Amino acid sequence: MKKWFTVLFAGMLILLGGCNVINEAKNTVTYIDQAIEFINTATDFANDAPPLAKRAVEDTQAATELETMLLDMKNEIEEFNSLQAPEIAADLHQQIVDNNTVVLNGINLYLESIEDGKLDPAILENTEIFQTINDMSGLINELKKLGN
Q: Which of 51, 93, 109, 126 could form a disulfide with 85 if both were Cys (CB 3.0 to 4.6 A apart)?
């Protein structure tokens, strides 16, 4: 009876250990997908915001669209930053979060200028927002390597 119980217990431990490995792999793949999607969203933002900012100086509808775009990106960043990265991707996650801090600072600066009525597209051009986002897009290849 003791042998049977020991074998059953050992089998359960093996199954539970295997489940943990499977869950970790699934979490890693999910995180990688979320990170790549976030970087693609940020890249789209970096492409769309500058021309909209130039139009927003003279067009109130474009100014409203720009403010919405900035707030949406800010929310995307905050949502991404709150993700719990798997251990294998912790360093990459921290790099993205650090870059996001730079982008958030630029977004907040531009939102303040909108609120103050001093809409100036040069503010967006002079911040590090777009260079930082371009730097982040280089992380996509590293994220894909983790998935393999």
A: 93
DSSP per position, 48-81: HHHHHHHHHTT-HHHHHHHHHHHHHHHHHHHHHH
Structure confidence by residue, pLDDT tens digits, 82-110: 999 999 889 999 999 999 999 999 899 88
Count of beta carbons in the 10 Å neighbourhood of residue 145: 10
Q: Report d(CA 4, CA 33) in Å as an integer.
A: 44
Distance, in Å, from the CA atom of 26 to the CA atom of 24, rounded to the nearest integer, reads 5
> Considering Cα of 135, then 138, then 140, then 142, what sign does the dihedral take?
negative
Instruction: Note the pLDDT tens digit of each residue in 8-62.
Output: 444 444 544 555 555 665 778 899 999 999 999 999 999 998 899 888 888 889 9
The answer to whether 86 and 116 have CB atoms below 8 angstroms apart is no
Residue 28 tokens read as: 């890693």
Q: Are 101 and 81 a contacting pair, CB within 8 Å?
A: no
Determine contact, residues 89/39, Cβ cutoff 8 Å. no
Its pTM stands at 0.79
**What is each CA distance from 30 to 10, 33, 143, in whole angstroms?**
30, 5, 11
